[in-house]
Amino acid sequence: MRIKFILILIFQLYFFPYTQAQKYKGWRIEPNFTYGKIFVHTSRINTPITANTIGGEIAIEKKLHGKNPQHIYAKYPEVGLLLNYQNFNQRYIGWGMGFAPYINMDFIKYKNFRLYGRLAVGIGWLSDHYNAANNTYNNIVGSHVSNNTILRLAAGVKINQHWELRPAFHFSHFSNGASQLPNYGINITSFQLGVCYQPQPYADDEFIKIDSQPKLSKRFIFGVSGNIGMRESTTFGGAKYPIYQLSADVSRWITRLHRVRVGVEYEKLDYVQEFLLNLAVYNPQQARQQATRFSAYGGIEIMWGRFTLGGNVSFYLTKRELQPYFMHFRVLARYYFCNPVKAKIQPYVGWGLKTHKIIAEYMSLNVGVLF
User: Which residues contact 211 (CB under 8 A, 6 or more apart)?
Assistant: First the structure.
């Protein structure tokens, strides 16, 4: 009995690494170190910025091997979840942390070297923010909870089939979308050095391939959407007001991963209306008119199965009070309830961020349908 137990134990110890690795085929873990500095992007920021930032990330990712045809068209990208930490080394700003899903896509790839990009969009937490009682020196952010968006341009240097060295340029942005002022946002530019380990990589013959790709649809696709956001009034600690936005557009596929769109949008900003009424310069009808904006936009949408990321570049067709610029940008993330490549009717839910230059005006939740 004792000999049998010893033989079973030896068998388990010998085959444990292989059997566990099979469970995690294609999975990877990446720790890294980050060193950089807060980028002061507007002269309105009066918070002292002197020291460099330090921090790091820990990421869990999966190499996609082609189960979804969209992953084949995208040359087998990597998706994952990361935990981002930044010590700002500033007395009145403290530190920030973010948790975000991400995707990596290769730009250039050779046998042992590649150049790739990463986009991550998630939720953040900031230790310190503006407070009229004890932190008036921080006029960058006004709340603990924020969005955390990360862009990375990185090189992958393959050491062997299990290890990859990853030096990178890293940009991290914290913002609450002006839901609580002030909100100029924290932008950090950094150098990043990481190492990636994968216990069981896919062999070349394990990637799913297709002999022929389906033809692109030449049909124009019409879409309508509605957004609701929230923004604090133009003064710190003021009331919070809803923002309503409606849009209609037409889009068309240009590759099997991308489709472009053009459209128009309407916005109603209640914080503008209330501010103008308080000035006693406009009557209610005039204030309501000044709080509406119309824009024309063009945009692109990038597909990864049912989840998509995209953006619009918009130009105002109206000139209203408190309109800070002649154009604006909108970043959009959507989840479709059906396959957007095949379905003729495509309902979705999503999230958006509107900015003028690089300063956010508001974040929003949206619903819509394409047909």
Answer: none
pLDDT digits (tens, 9 = 90+) for 77-90: 999 999 999 999 98
Distances (CA, A) of 145 to 127, 227, 343: 9, 21, 37
Residues spanned by the domain of 30: 26-206
What's the pLDDT at 233? Answer: 65
Contacts 24+ apart (CB under 8 A), 83-87: 83/57, 83/58, 83/59, 84/55, 84/57, 84/120, 84/124, 84/148, 84/150, 84/172, 85/55, 85/56, 85/57, 86/34, 86/53, 86/54, 86/55, 86/172, 86/188, 87/53, 87/54, 87/55
Which CATH number belongs to the domain containing residue 282 in this structure? Answer: 2.40.160
Predicted TM-score (pTM) of the model is: 0.76
Both 199 and 115 in a single domain? yes
Domain membership flag for residue 211: no
Query: Can you tell me the mean pLDDT for 330-336?
Result: 92
**Domain count for the chain:** 2
| pLDDT band of 313, cuts 50, 70, 90 | very high
Residue 201 DSSP symbol: P
Residues 308 and 169 in one domain: no
Residues 165 and 227 in one domain: no
| pLDDT for 339 beyond 50 | yes
Question: Can you tell me whether residue 334 is helix, strand or coil?
Answer: strand
Q: What pLDDT does 259 receive?
A: 94
Give yes or no: residues 287 and 322 share one domain. yes
Q: Does residue 192 sit in the same domain as residue 296?
A: no
